[in-house]
Amino acid sequence: MEPRLSIITLGVTDLQRSYDFYSKGLGLPTTRTPEQGIVFFQTSGVTLAIYPYEELAQDVGPDWSGPRSKFPGVTIAHNVRTREEVDAVMETAAGAGASVVKPAADTFWGGYSGYFSDPDGYLWEIAWGAFEFNDDGSLIVT
Length: 142
Known about the structure:
It is built from three helices and nine strands; from the N terminus they run βαββαβαβββββ. With 142 residues, the protein is α/β, with parallel strands linked by helices. The chain folds into two domains: 64 residues, 2,3-Dihydroxybiphenyl 1,2-Dioxygenase, domain 1 (Roll), CATH 3.10.180; 68 residues, 2,3-Dihydroxybiphenyl 1,2-Dioxygenase, domain 1, CATH 3.10.180. The strands form three sheets. Strands 4-7-6-5 form a four-stranded mixed sheet, covered by helices on one side. Strands 1-3-2 form a three-stranded mixed sheet. A two-stranded antiparallel sheet has the order 8-9. β8 and β9 form a beta hairpin. The radius of gyration is 16 Å and the shape is globular.
């Protein structure tokens, strides 16, 4: 297997609400609309997709439909280049309807980060201080 992630798909309860949050609220670029049944957002690196939760569960298999755990053990990280960007992204997300779960603060690992949850409860960490960036926006992990 090549060391690459291509798409992360979030199962959402209201495709239009999530589309509005990610496209209008956070400004993620897309050429798709909810009427097409699935929306892809192009980012530097992994593509983010939103798809109706029940349909995603059915695609996996008949035994996967059911309520999601509040914390499924996965977070999505968005690393930024400056400490100030953490606060700006957290503010933008809150203005778009996110719930701030953990306000940005200094971390035990020497950085600065906070968490918000999107309209379906998916947790996003906005972080600064752990990585440098390649010109294309991808992380340099050593």
